[in-house]
Amino acid sequence: MRSWPAVRVPRVPGQPEPLRAYDSRTREVVPLEVHGQARMYVCGITPYDATHLGHAATYLAFDLLHRQWLDHGIEVTYVQNITDVDDPLLERARATGESWTDLAERETELFRQDMAALRILPPHHFVGVVDALPEVAKLIESIGAAAYRIDDDLYLDVHADEFFGSVAGLGAERMRQLSAERGGDPDRPGKRDPLDCLLWRAPRQGEPAWDTAVGRGRPGWHVGCAAIGLAYLGAEFDVQGGGSDLLFPHHELCASHVRLATGEPAARAYVHSGMVAYRGEKMSKSLGNLVLVSDLRDHDAAAVRLALLAHHYRADWDWTEHDLAYAEERLTRWRMAIDRPTQAPAEALIARIRAELANDLNAPAALAAVDAWCASPGSTNSADAVREALDALLGVAV
Q1: 261-292 b/e with 16+ CB inside 10 Å = b?
Q2: Is residue 337 within 8 Å of residue 298, measured between CB atoms?
Q3: What is the dihedral of CA 82, 88, 89, 90, to 10 degrees?
Q4: Of 357, 368, 308, nearest to 20 (Cα)?
Q5: Which of 81, 79, 104 is nearest to 91 (CA)?
Q6: Which of 247, 287, 280 has the alpha carbon at shortest distance from 52?
Q7: How much is the pTM?
Q8: Mean predicted confidence (pLDDT) in 89-101
Q9: Residue 287 has pLDDT above 80, yes or no
Q10: pLDDT of residue 66
Q11: Distances (CA, A) of 139 to 81, 90, 143, 322
Q12: Which DSSP letter does residue 267 get?
């Protein structure tokens, strides 16, 4: 599947600090030690509606991480999926009378445009689940006896994985509750355990199906991501990323798929972004309380990016129109300061930005450092160095 165009990332002189981020599995800030090449998987959208600011905040968080690795001189292999066949997409297509393939194609293209407008670095492998069906079937076959049938559907026995539950660290009742809320079917008769998840869905009337090595049908949600990550990154890649609502069941079950197929962990660290609310409710397609990235395209994209960066990536927060208004004012101050004949020296500012971003991607503190620099008296011409650093490290074009 085609990704979106990449932007140039300038090389910034100086030495970055060791990078640390919060690992949801260990529940602490840990070093992200990478040797030679970083491997990152970030779960993509289900393309049944337009990209909203909750999506944008998530992909911006991992864009920041991507940029910090590049600043360290580390080569990055970044994989992102598109869940281009799943129940929400098919349900929306039935409700609107549109072909599910046309719906997925249109919304995926809008997502590409939104990501390009925000200057999000593209994944090296942008993979639709439909294109990865051979990899999905291979993974299911590798799981072997951990798969069992209910009627003609295949399910994963989660207790075949002795480490099931170790990623999210939740109790059984909470896991069952979240499974019901987030795409699971804990009450389906015939399951060995309510938390067992769908691997392969046999054909239903009016639904798409494909012939594969495991039969005719379509994949469950979790196995698609697990198969794509394993195919393009291998086991125990560096970072599994996404919104915090993916920690359970999605990332927990992806980890079980990979462990059962390979005997290895799926990822070394699990990094999650917070939820963005609007008018007191988490921004979501199901609630319809969306602020769409495409609706903000009339504004300077750098200001939209700054509005998102003003909140720590792990924080849950509520979007208001003030966020964008303040970001536009901030961007104007930054540009005025850079356009002055003289500015404060750049070296200390760049070191501060690097230090804040190395400390669990603390973008709000990095923005505050730039604010302070803008208010400092000028003594030298630092415009080019600051402009390149803001572009490379924060992705903000001034």
Answers
A1: beeebbbbbbbbbbbbbbeeebbbbeeebbbb
A2: no
A3: 140
A4: 357
A5: 104
A6: 287
A7: 0.96
A8: 96
A9: no
A10: 98
A11: 16, 24, 6, 47
A12: E
Q: Is the pLDDT of residue 348 over 90?
A: yes
DSSP string, 200-259: EEPP-TTS--EEETTEEEEE-HHHHHHHHHHHHH-SSEEEEEEEGGGIIIIIHHHHHHHH
Beta bridge partners of 267: 237
In 360-381, which positions are buried (b, 16+ CB within 10 angstroms) versus exposed (e)? bbbbebbbebbeebbeeeeeee
Instruction: Tell whether the model's pLDDT for residue 49 goes beyond 90.
Output: no
- Which two tokens mark 230? 């394993």
Q: Is the pLDDT of residue 5 over 80?
A: yes
For 331, the 3-state DSSP assignment is helix
Which residues make Cβ contacts (< 8 Å) with residue 322, sequence separation at least 6? none
Q: Indicate the burial class of 318 (C-beta count within 10 angstroms; 0-12, 13-18, 19 or more).
A: middle
Q: Of 128, 275, 145, which is closest to residue 210 (Cα–Cα)? A: 128
Compute, in degrees rounded to 10, the torsion defined by CA atoms 26, 246, 152, 262: -40
Q: Is 77 helix (H, G, I), strand (E, B) or coil?
A: strand
Residue 358 banded pLDDT, cuts 50, 70, 90:
very high
DSSP 80: E
Residue 290's pLDDT band (cuts 50, 70, 90): confident
Q: What is the mean pLDDT of residues 294-307?
A: 95
What span, in angstroms and rounded, lies between the C-alpha atoms of 16 and 9? 15
Interatomic CA distance for residues 113 and 295, integer angstroms: 12
> 52 near 293, Cβ under 8 Å?
yes
Handedness of CA 282, 301, 366, 12 (dihedral sign): positive
**Residue whose pair of structure tokens reads 């670095």 in the numeric block:** 121
The predicted structure's pLDDT at residue 289: 79
Closest C-alpha among 202, 193, 201 to residue 160: 193
Tens of pLDDT, residue by residue over 367-384, are: 999 999 999 988 888 999
Tell me the CA distances in angstroms from 215 to 137, 329, 385, one per residue in order.
9, 58, 58
Nearest-angstrom CA–CA distance, 45 and 52: 11
271: left (phi over 0), alpha (psi -120 to 50) or beta: beta
Rg (CA), the chain: 22
